[in-house]
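Input/output pair, single chain:
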Amino acid sequence: MASVFDVARYVLNHAGAMTTMKLQKLAYYCQAWSLVWDGMPLFDEDFQAWANGPVCPELFATHKGRFWLGEDYYDDNRPYPFTRTQEETMNAVLEGYADKEPQWLSELTHKERPWRETRRGVAPGESCESVIPKELMQEYYGGLEDAEEG
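Output:
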């Protein structure tokens, strides 16, 4: 299975340099839509409901203290471990979200049930290490797709 770092590398290589906040949100949406469209996680790592939206702590640890990442930040010259379907999912996510500003993506996650529900009872701006359940992500984003089709 791919890791969040494989997804980060793919996102940066295909969408170009970006802020760390934007990378976190794009990786989150890649995971969310993989759960819906492909019926399985794209990677094992989890996201926590941090104050500025979903954050994968393992990914954060590798870019902590940085604001901006170049498109080759995670390059390691290995082939991508993704299936064609997984690449199609990530490409669709990038097509839908990559042109958005980081703050817009953060605000979007704040309106969505997985982040809000996971942070229930936590004051705005307060630290939170609660994991956003993949099942909740799949249920919520799958419901969005159903609403759009209906």
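DSSP finds seven helices and four strands in the chain. The mean pLDDT is 96.
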